[in-house]
Amino acid sequence: MKILLATQKPFAVAAVAGIRQIVEAAGHDLVVFEKYASQSDLVAAVADADAMIIRSDKVTAEVLDAAKRLRIVVRAGAGYDNVDLPAATAHGVVVENTPGQNSNAVAELALAMMIFMARNQFTPATGSEIQGKTLGIQAFGHVGRLVGAKAAALGMKVRAIDPFLPAEKIVGGGAEPAASLEELYATSDYVSIHIPATPETIGSIGYDLITKMPKGATLVNTARKEVIDEAGLEKALEDRPDLKYIADVAPDNLAVLKEKFGLRVFATPKKMGAQSAEANLNAGLAAARQIVAFFADGCTRFQVNK
């Protein structure tokens, strides 16, 4: 089988070598397609691929139409909103992600962001400590639980909410369950967002939620920019000059926010939550193993378009 490693943002050299070893040991061929210039290049490259490993690369209906032999796509990472799932299903293509492989890297970044904002982006002005503060975690999956554990180790009180988890699971994960999303925001000095971008969540975090936060609170987004109502965020920061926002996914109105609110707003230049050597390697190897397992015995344990 021909497995296409299609990554506009390349994996580390060690990760590519590990992926190749796994793929070739199973008797498949690996084709590395990195730093391509345009989406049309990807469309051309998938024509004879049986499987594909991607990162943030966009697998659109056009890509799937061109991929006549494609049977499986594995997104090396947790999020998969860059893949057109209905189109993949219509083409009979299995789509998988690699949950948990990037989780520690994202969790460490979330904690670093809290400290960065607590210390006024490391400017000389007097800042504050996160010890003794309350952290609210919105979605308590792989990343959320790790963020909570690390925050608790630093002396924070941890609360969480997850519509897919009963209260006892949240307690078992080391957090106090919130009664509602509104209560979570109203009682948290920091809120760390870990929800996916879905029709239900896009634009769901806006003025009403953000302004429920206590005085001096900070909203931390290492999830997706689409979950934020950016106009609502801007109005909240205008009406509440004590609030702060930091993101690993720059909002479209970042320039306006920076101009109006200065050190109260920060976004990384490029999404870097999973950008650690360890996460890079783990996610890439996991993707390769999942493809090998799929062709060996039909394993679809991590399929997301069931």
Task: Describe it.
The chain is an alpha/beta fold and 306 residues long. It folds into two domains: 2-101 and 275-297, 3-Layer(aba) Sandwich (Rossmann fold); 103-267, NAD(P)-binding Rossmann-like Domain (Rossmann fold, 3-Layer(aba) Sandwich), CATH 3.40.50.720. Helix content is 38%, strand content 17%. Strands 8-7-6-9-10-11-12 form a seven-stranded parallel sheet. Strand 9 (190-193), helix 9 and strand 10 (218-221) form a beta-alpha-beta unit. The radius of gyration is 20 Å and the shape is elongated. The chain starts with a strand and ends in a 9-residue tail after the last helix.
Secondary structure layout plus pairing:
Elements: E1 2-7, H1 13-25, E2 29-34, H2 39-45, E3 51-54, H3 61-66, E4 72-75, H4 85-90, E5 94-97, H5 103-118, E6 134-138, H6 142-153, E7 157-161, H7 167-172, E8 176-177, H8 181-186, E9 190-193, H9 207-210, E10 218-221, H10 230-239, E11 244-247, H11 254-261, E12 265-267, H12 277-297
Could you list some keywords that capture this structure?
12 helices, five-stranded parallel β-sheet, 306 residues, seven-stranded parallel β-sheet, alpha/beta, Rossmann fold, 17% strand
Question: Would you kindly provide a brief summary of this structure?
Answer:
With 306 residues, the protein is α/β, with parallel strands linked by helices. The protein has helices at 13-25, 39-45, 61-66, 85-90, 103-118, 142-153, 167-172, 181-186, 207-210, 230-239, 254-261, 277-297, and strands at 2-7, 29-34, 51-54, 72-75, 94-97, 134-138, 157-161, 176-177, 190-193, 218-221, 244-247, 265-267.
